[in-house]
Design brief:
Elements (H helix, E strand, L loop, with lengths): L3 H27 L10 H8 L1 H34 L5 H13 L2 H11 L12 H29 L3 H10 L4 H12 L1 H17 L2 H5 L5 H11 L2 H34 L1
Length: about 260
């Protein structure tokens, strides 16, 4: 009789092949820009393109601001809900899951309708306003992942005891958040930050409809006009995502190792 371990390894091998073969095929195709030999010509062409550098830099900057804004919104909210409003936790969790249910195109059309040049807050009427609107859209899309990561981090600490100890020493709410709670959930915040970074780098709908020079629309434009460069961009985008996932694992393991030493 075939053991359960055999079927487990078979399922694992099937999953690896299912995900790895398309990536290997894309990688192999991206190396065939020069006829008859493998070369990095497609990657050289992409990296030498000024638009690549501009759009990638723009998306990295937007990702950094999105992470900061997301952390400033999520950490105090998750902390306050766990400390003072535990009965509201299911409601808050439901709200944070809405971006997974509502398509991004609906969100961006709502933004355009609410914040167009004829509205009370015409954010789309200027480049800075549109950038702020795009950043808030990114923060909305990353909200489920950031909130889940921070909430999981808060579960591992005694929030009430830490708060009472800090208050007994004369600390205010801002000091408690910045110097007591945040250092204890920093690994969770970093995990959410890496996921947010991966989302922002590859996002297309919001940036395209708001007409901003982000990396996602650049990949789509390159895919519509060139042959081998889109495959190179796909490999680069996948590499960024996997690096972010690897950094999450690294930070998590480092945190466990540090806690074990303590």
């Amino acid at each position: 009789m075939i053991s359960k371990r055999f079927w487990s390894w078979l399922a694992l091998a099937f999953g690896i092949l299912y995900f790895a073969l398309p990536l290997l095929g894309t990688l192999e195709f991206s190396l065939r820009a020069r006829r008859g030999v493998y070369s990095l010509d497609a990657y050289r062409s992409v990296l030498a393109d000024p638009q690549f550098r501009e759009t990638f830099t723009y998306s990295v900057v937007m990702a950094i601001f999105t992470i900061l804004v997301g952390a400033l919104i999520v950490v105090p909210t998750a902390y306050w809900v766990r400390l003072k409003l535990p009965k509201w936790r299911p409601v808050v969790e439901f709200i944070t899951l809405l971006p997974l249910v509502i398509p991004p195109i609906v969100i961006v059309f709502g933004y355009i309708r609410l914040y167009n040049t004829s509205s009370f807050l015409p954010l789309t009427g200027s480049i800075t306003g549109t950038n702020i609107l795009l950043m808030l859209g990114y923060a909305t899309l990353s909200l489920p992942y950031m909130y889940r990561a921070v909430d999981t981090g808060l579960r591992t600490i005694d929030v009430a005891t830490l708060t009472e100890a800090a208050q007994s020493l004369g600390a205010g709410w801002g000091t408690i958040l910045a110097r007591v709670i945040l250092p204890n959930v920093l690994v969770a915040v970093l995990s959410g930050a890496f996921i947010t970074f991966a989302i922002v780098i590859g996002e297309f709908v919001l940036a395209s409809l708001l007409n901003r020079p982000a990396f996602g629309p650049y990949m789509q434009l390159t895919g519509a006009n060139k042959a081998y460069e889109p495959a190179a961009l796909a490999v680069i985008a996948f590499s960024i995502t996997w690096i972010c996932m690897g950094l999450i694992q690294l930070v998590t393991r480092f945190s466990k190792h540090t806690n074990a030493k303590r």
